[in-house]
Design goal:
6-stranded mixed sheet, binds magnesium ion, 35 helices, binds adenosine-5'-diphosphate, alpha/beta, elongated
Amino acid sequence: MANEPTPLMKQYAELKEQAGDALLFFRMGDFYELFGDDAVEAARILEITLTSRDKNKPDPLPMAGVPHHSAGNYVQKLLNAGKKVAICEQFEEAAAGKPGKTLVRRAIVRLLTPAIQFDGESSETSYLATALPETPGDPQSAWALGCLDIATGDFRFAQLSHLDELSAWASDLPIRHWVELQGLAPSGLAATLQAAGQGLGRPVLCENLPSNYLGQAASEDKLKAQFGLASLDAFVPEGVTRRALGVLLTYALRSQSSALGAAETSNPALSVPSAPKLQHLRLPEPLRRSRSMVLGPRTAQHLDLFPDLFQLISRTRSALGTRTLKRLLMEPLRDPQDITHRQEGIQELALKAARAESLGKLLGQLYDLERISGRLTTGQANPRDTWALGASLGTLPELGRILDSAESPLLQELRERLLRGAEVLGSLSRRILDTQNEEAPLLAREGGIFKKGTNSELDRLIDLSTEGSKFLVELETRERERTGIPSLKVRYNRVFGYYIEVTQAHLKNVPADYQRKQTTVGAERFFTEELKKFEDEIVTAEDRRKRLEQSLFSDLLEEAQRHTLQVMDVARALGELDSWLSLSRLTEMPGWVFPRIDDSLDVEILGGRHPVVDSVSRGKFVPNDLKLGQKSRLSLLITGPNMGGKSTVMRQVALIVLLGQCGAPVPARSARWGAFSSIYTRIGAHDAIARGQSTFMVEMSELAHILHRADERSLVILDEIGRGTSTYDGISVAWSTLEWICKKLRCRTLFATHYHELTHLSEELPRLGNAHMAVAAPAQTNETQLRFLYQLREGAANESFGIQVAQLAGLPRGVIDRAWKVLARLESDQRTPGAATAEPLVLGSGPGEQLDEVLPLFASASSQRGLTRRADDAESVGSIASTAPTLPSIRSALSRLFDSDPSLAGSADLSGDLFSSQDHKASAGAGAAHSPEARAATETESRAPAASRGLPVEPPLWASELARAEISNMTPLQAMNFLAQLQEKARSS
Ligand code: ADP
Ligand code: MG
């Protein structure tokens, strides 16, 4: 008997079965209650109290509840945590006086998931997504990917040639809810998405559906019915893509009320959404649209588009604009004409400041029309939504008027769209604004939605209540006179209704026709026949008014629903206007210009800056030039020390290209390039351990994607390819990649590397140039302190400065000293293999003491470095050698010994703008080579392949001596003596 479930719990169990794995919000009076595991989980996430039902029973049922009026926030929190929530409403009031005794009707009205929600105010896209294989079971199968953003109606698909590509695409999309058909799932992808979502703090809900959830034919029918099409051919490619989209559509429809069994509930007082159609869904479009540029799967992430760049450039006034601007950044244009077209419009907005100001003001008053139309079509729009719709649409004519004098085709087209919208939607907007109160209630059933004059019956009911209050005032005055009680009051409260209140002191004057209603402290409350009659009338009038308003509101909703598509179109136009206006304001930033974009394969960016790094560096950012071209070179191999600015300069080029092709101004003194159709990037050691892939694996998958896809019109940015593996593997992969790019892809490429061995490739590969990030090592200091100049200069870097950078980073002195010795050893090993065992170098007990005796000439240099000699410890050197990242040439070690030479240590500004090699020759020839700094530059550059240099500067004498010397045939001591002598010469020269 004790375990016999109550009727209520039986009802709960049935509904919970319907809700499946969703947390069931079970409406009971003013609360939504959760039971069992749902309660435990919700209590944990929401941090609300977990109680239990029937505490006296042996196994009490866990229970947690939230008040219905604030349920929205709680639901949102659960969705943000990646949960699914089913909302169960109650369709009758519990019988008064004996709650719980009669079972009221309940039904699930809505299923919400992280991707299926309408109330969220966020401007982020949240996709419900799925993928299906072209040939099930085949690991080489192609895949169809479908995505649906139900809040805005954005419906997209992509066809991908293999699983890797699918993974790359899917992990780059804002997917919040991933569904898979049993047996047809892309293996591992759900876990990848979940891990990635976790990493970004936006958990992804992954859900399994039965394999027969929806078949191919049914999918096609569903899509046709949704969009009223006889054939899908013009919109969605044949085959499994249609099924993927059909599954998403079906899921979305089923998550709405009617499919969940609430349609038959018939209480007119409670608005139950009618069968949803999701009319706001747009016809499916390919995820990669042909008019826009392709961004590599991780490019947005590599370039820190969100939030860094976005925050810097966003000046939007509306949620629509914010969302559009995000979309814009992800879809730059590729056609020079399209770009110029947009540029002209944005330029015009920038020039006509007063007009832009008034446009901005109006846009600032817009409500989120995309989301409102989302709620409209699912029948969840409330009176505030419709009012917001009316008010937003009301701005159209004026926006159109402000654009009357627009000259650019872009703005003229936009004006047409807005005016067309104003024409079609004008009557809807007027109807709303004329009839609805501005302070509309959130719930349609509360009444008070409509103004007087909307409907004559409503007017009569409104009058009744206003006259009602007049009547009450009159009654009070009248009764005061009649009874002579000055403090007599006529009042109302929710429990007892209307009453006349008389204080104790005056009770003796109460007339006989007063009937007692209630006694309070110090007063009695009465009613009269007259008051009773009034009460009956007024209360039913209120009820009738609410019911009437609700039905008037349904009519209004219906009309609005019929216009959903036009509203969506207007919303898109307004979003675009706002985003362009936002971009136009970038012209106010000092040193931003509109680039010129043409059909060539050239790039000429002068004084380019990284928008984000520049903005935070308070004027300290060093601008850089970049020139690429079909006639000179298309690819640039960039060397230079760690922290030298390689990654920054490459990102900056990509960001300038991306902004420019959005039609925006860019941070540069001047810029011109031939349009790119895609940007592919592979930057930094992007750690994906959370996704179960090693760093190197991630790097190689991303590289694979790029090398398969890039073409002549791509911008390819590769940063330190091969870093994640052993030196020889890494260098080989980097080497062959560079060959592939230069010989096969022939795309404009920036390739940063710490493998100096690659710099000679410029002699062999077509249109490959060398450049480096310049550094200065100040002279005459005890520390070998390095200073970064952040200048991109012609030619390869002469060394990697790894140990100096390690020192800058604060490695213990002992480690640094030791590293120098290991390096010297490695270098001499490279030259004279036998030397390793003969004269190992070890950490001395006192710096330099032994060497100093033998080699007075070398004393100063050795004590600086703590270089000593001892005949043991060869092994540890060997083991370090095998993990050393690279083997710099002996020449670089020598130059380090000369770092006290002032002519080598110039830190002043060098005239090293990065021009094509011809330009460079010209500038070097123009007398720039006479300063000590220029000599230093020459010194550096003379190490680069002579063919690409050809600089007309004679090396100093000591240098030619050095160049001739056979150092590899000397013993280390001979070599040091030789060097010390040379240093003397260098100092006195
Ligand atoms: P690398 O890739 O060569 O290791 P980064 O590009 O990561 O070097 O740059 C290291 C740091 O140097 C950046 O974080 C930035 O603060 C600074 N930096 C880079 N380029 C510039 C520049 N042009 N002007 C000023 N600072 C720069
Ligand atoms: Mg870097």
